[in-house]
Specification:
There is one protein chain. Helix content is 55%, strand content 5%. By secondary structure, the protein is mostly helical. It contains 30 helices and twelve strands. It has a five-stranded antiparallel β-sheet. Strands 10-11-12 form a three-stranded antiparallel β-sheet.
């Protein structure tokens, strides 16, 4: 509390106070670590860390962008003016995160910020442009900012700089990725050595021209690396790392626990010094986690065997509680590490010791096996003894059934089970007088991912009912967030080489093929029937808008494969279709569907039937296939009876089914329509500036007009009417589309307030009154 109080007294909007902020933040973090060591609960630890971050974020957010740029430059950040070019109004500037002392300097998100600025500068130095900026604009903007000197600098004349540049270009010309592995490694090493020689050059006579020269050379090597076959590039980097390991310039942790791309950034001196230092710290932290994982494994294995353990004895209960803690910590640490460990050279050694790695969103076979063996053991134990163990683990077990007690204990290590939801089900049973031993109803369709547990109904408006609603909503949000694959940029995906396609039998009217990405993940490609790729651009834009609105979505990208333009997106492992029966949907499901409806109306997608909504492995809902986005713009209605795909035999959108089921009391007991669930999405869309919204949708508009898609006719008529012209150009039709999209975004609050009120959902009118 003392550390937080001091942190909160740092003068706002004063860049000179940044060193004080860093020192006080370090004190607060040390105090927090001590409190955790002294026995703080995970909840208190999380709240304490949140408080520290709230202070540092608030202070940094009070600074002007120019102040953030100056502070970042003083800390060694290179080209800070190229960061945050598209930051939405009200959002945190990326440099504020980079400067935030509550987050480690080695955090991958911080390293990515510097890497993106370096990449942008290199492209400008090579003659490109960015967001209307040229190299001269950046040089003028950064004049006067602190500049970090090159590592191990040598004094060069302008002629020597030109000579060093020529050396890099000559080495690049000899780089042939089709050569033998040894030859490729040798030639790549020569290029990196030549670039490093130039990177260390200091030449005051050239001024800003020296950085431009270095940037142009970096861009040339970046391009060569992007165009290289990934397996050949990675093999060559592995050879360079092995040599650097022998020379002592790369440590054991860096050689085993950084990806090949991260290792190459470490080898190249054109990578900014703070970024290279951050990579070294990242490797050291990963090594510490590997050592911690080994210790946790030892604790888990020492307690894994339950034979001979009796829950009726104090020693037996202590053994079981210790197993729950050890297994939970061990499995959680493995899942936490899997996100990065699957892409590093040391993965083989890790898996040789710990078995296959998995992420938090994928199946955990060890946890499931432990749960099965625990349940078999628990059959021979008294319920009273198991309740005593569950109570030690934080449960209020009074009135809980054997199944609920066992599930609560197993939830300590099994991510498929949730302690909060189990406890809420026990509380709900007590509130409704459900018979002792009655288990909560679980809805699982054959062959589908498991749905959420539906607790017995609680009295409407009661504390228990509200508590269950909150638990369900939080669980649904967290579940689907864990299950979503990474979301790379359009530029990244454009540069990837996908494997050959195989036919995909996933339903729908359009042909689809499956392709393996460079990282081994499986992606779905849908070629456009039209030559201009209008449908692909529409689906990609809709995916981006849903993402910005906070509605779960996978990234969709425009891609040319096999000579065809189409959309490509990663598959979500283990997902299944949402059951068609609204009576099986939980409150969390219905709230997610209401939020989805707002985004679907914004992008004009009326194809959101249950086959286009997935249940992810953790139980969350994920809308997919926005291929019909914008199709009915200019003639659609926000109306529960509007179903343009009905003539093709398609099921109703899930949101319309939810509203009609609520009106006919066909939803599950205690589940209702909560119009206020729409507010987060409405707010998020309202906050997207029109200029940014137009930028997202401009390819949809121009490609759509070129391809003559369904919305072109209504938009052409609207443009004629607005402009009072008999004939309008394609550009004017595209502009009408963008106007219509922005107007729809601006009217969401009023439109849904009227919509919900018209259906008889009493709180609908409040939407228009809540800012």
């Amino acid at each position: 509390e003392e550390a937080l109080a001091a942190l909160g007294q740092v003068g706002a909007a004063d860049p000179a106070a940044y060193p004080k902020l860093r020192a006080l933040a370090e004190e607060a973090l040390q105090a927090h670590a001590q409190a955790v060591a002294d026995g703080w609960s995970p909840e208190l630890a999380a709240e304490g860390m949140k408080a520290v971050k709230a202070h540092t974020q608030a202070w940094l957010s009070s600074l002007a962008v120019e102040d953030l740029q100056g502070l970042a430059a003083a800390q060694g950040f290179e080209h800070p003016t190229l960061v945050g070019l598209h930051t939405p109004e009200g959002a945190q500037h990326p440099l504020a995160h980079w400067l935030d002392p509550a987050y480690g300097a080695h955090l991958p998100s911080k390293l990515t910020i510097q890497a993106k600025a370096t990449e942008r500068y290199a492209k400008l130095a090579a003659g490109g442009s960015l967001a209307g900026l040229a190299l001269a604009d950046v040089q003028a903007a950064e004049q006067g900012l602190p500049q970090a000197g090159p590592p191990g600098a040598w004094q060069a004349t302008p002629a020597q700089v030109v000579e060093a540049m020529a050396g890099v270009n000559q080495a690049l010309a000899g780089l042939d990725w089709a050569g033998s592995p040894a030859e490729v490694a040798t030639r790549l090493g020569a290029v990196v050595a030549a670039e490093n020689h130039l990177a260390r050059a200091a030449c005051p006579e050239m001024g800003a021209g020296l950085e431009a020269a270095k940037g142009s050379v970096r861009a040339a090597l970046d391009t060569a690396l992007e165009q290289a076959p990934s397996h050949r590039r990675d093999r060559a980097v592995a050879e360079l790392v092995a040599e650097a390991r022998k020379a002592g310039t790369i440590g054991e942790a860096e050689a085993a626990l950084l990806s090949r791309d991260e290792q190459l950034d470490l080898l190249r001196l054109s990578t900014p010094s703070p970024q290279r230092a951050g990579l070294s710290k990242l490797a050291a932290e990963r090594q510490a986690r590997v050592q911690e994982l080994a210790e946790l494994r030892g604790l888990y294995l020492a307690r894994k065997d339950l034979s001979g353990v009796e829950a009726s004895t104090a020693a037996g209960r202590e053994h079981l509680a210790a197993l729950a803690g050890a297994a939970g910590s061990y499995f959680a640490k493995r899942a936490e590490m899997a996100g990065w460990a699957q892409g590093v050279p040391g993965r083989t050694e890790l898996e040789a010791t710990h078995g296959p790695l998995w992420t938090a969103s994928s199946s955990n076979p060890d946890a499931q096996a432990l749960t099965a063996s625990f349940r078999a053991w628990a059959k021979g134990q008294k319920l009273a003894d198991l309740r005593a163990v569950a109570k030690d683990l934080g449960m209020e077990p009074e009135g809980a059934s054997r199944a609920q007690v066992q599930n609560y204990i197993a939830a300590s290590w099994d991510p498929k089970l949730d302690k909060a939801q189990i406890q809420a089900a026990v509380a709900a049973k007590a509130g409704t007088g459900a018979p002792e031993g009655a288990a909560p109803l679980k809805t699982v369709s054959p062959g589908s991912a498991p749905g959420p547990t539906l607790a017995p109904p609680a009295p409407p408006g009661s504390f228990t009912a509200k508590h269950l609603q909150v638990v369900a909503a939080l669980k649904a949000h967290q579940a689907v967030a864990r299950d979503l694959p990474p979301r790379p940029s359009q530029g990244d995906v454009e540069g990837w080489s996908f494997g050959p396609g195989t036919a995909a039998s996933l339903g729908g009217t359009h042909a689809k093929t499956l392709h393996r990405a460079p990282d081994g993940s499986m992606w779905l490609f849908k070629p456009d029937r039209g030559a201009a790729g209008a449908r692909a651009h529409a689906e990609a834009a809709a995916s981006e808008i849903l993402h910005r609105a906070g509605v779960p979505s996978v990234g969709v990208y425009v891609k040319r494969l096999g000579g065809k333009v189409g959309s490509i997106q990663p598959l979500v492992a283990g997902a299944a279709q949402l059951p068609a029966d609204p009576g099986s949907w939980s409150q969390g499901d219905v709230d997610s569907i209401v939020r989805y409806h707002v985004a679907a109306w914004a992008v004009g997608d009326h194809d959101g039937n249950h086959t286009n909504v997935l249940r992810t492995p953790s139980g969350g809902l994920l809308p997919v296939d926005q291929g019909q986005a914008f199709k009915f713009y200019g003639r659609d209605r926000l109306d529960v009876g509007y179903h343009p795909n009905g003539s093709y035999g398609a099921p109703q959108p899930v949101f319309h089914r939810a509203y009609q089921a609520a009106q006919s009391r066909a939803l599950a007991p205690g589940v209702t329509i909560r119009p206020e669930a729409a507010l987060p999405v409405i707010r998020a869309l309202e906050r997207i500036p029109d200029a940014q919204y137009r930028a997202i949708l401009r390819p949809v508009a121009t490609r759509g007009v070129k391809d003559g898609v369904a919305w072109v006719g209504p938009m052409r008529r609207a443009a004629r009417k607005r402009l009072k012209k008999t004939n309008v150009t394609d550009a004017e039709v595209a502009e009408e589309f963008l106007r219509h999209a922005c107007e729809r975004k601006a009217s969401l609050r009023r439109a849904f307030a009227e919509f919900f009120t018209s259906l008889g959902f009493a709180s609908g009118g409040k939407l228009s009154k809540v800012a």
